[in-house]
Amino acid sequence: MATIKYRAHRGNAFCAPENTMPAFESAWREGFDTIETDPCFTKDRQIILLHDKSLNRTCRNADGTPIQEPLLIRDLTYDEILAYDAGIACGEAFRGTRVPRLQELLAWAQDKDIILELDKKIATKEMDPLLELVAGYNANVAFYAADMQRVQKILSRLPHAMINYDGETDDASLREVCHTVPTEQLLVTVYCCDWVSESRRATIENCMRIKKYTHLGIGLTDHPYRVYWAQRLGADLIEI
Fold it and tell me: Does the predicted TM-score (pTM) go above 0.85?
C-alpha cells in the first residue's frame, strides 16, 4: 500500500490556536507532511495568516476579554492587529500569541521537510506580492487554485511551484490541469462536505476519476469516519 501523507488544516488546530506559529510548530512535531494556511492582506498590505475576514472569532483583547466591535482585517494595519491576542482564546498557555505574517512561517519552514499550502484568500489579480514574497525564501510551498487562470499565474512566476487544484473535476478540467502542471507538482483535492459543487466532493466516482489522472487529496476529514473513508478511497493525501 502506498504511503498516505497528511495535511494539518490551519496547522495543528486541535492542540494550538489555528493559523499561529504554535499550531504550525505542533503540526511539525507531530509529523504532518503539509500545513494548510490562509494568507490575506492587512490594510497596509502586509500578508498575515488568518482564516476569517475579522479578528473576532480567534482573537481577544490584550486582557483576554472578547472583542465586541467587528474588526475587519482589511480595515486594520498589522501594527494595529498586534494589539490583540491570538492565543488566549485557546487557553492560558497560549497567552501572548500573535497573528503571524507569512514571512515568519516561510523563514521557519526553510530548513524543514514540510510543505506549506497557501489557500486562496488573496485574489488571483492581487497575487504578485504573495508570489514575490514566496520566491524570496527556500521553503517548500504549494498554492491552492480552483481555475486555470490562477494556475497559470502561479507557474508564470514560480514554474516549479506545487499546485493543489481544488476546482471542477470533470474529465475536461482534469485533462487541462494535468496538461499544464507536471505530475510531480500536482495534487487534486476534493472535500468531505456538502457546500461545494458535486464535482468537488469526495464521492467514489470523483475520486476514481481523479486517480486515473493524478494524485488525489481529500480535505475536511474532521471525523474519524471521514478519515477512514478517505483511506478507502485511495487518497494520496488526507487533510485533518
Answer: yes
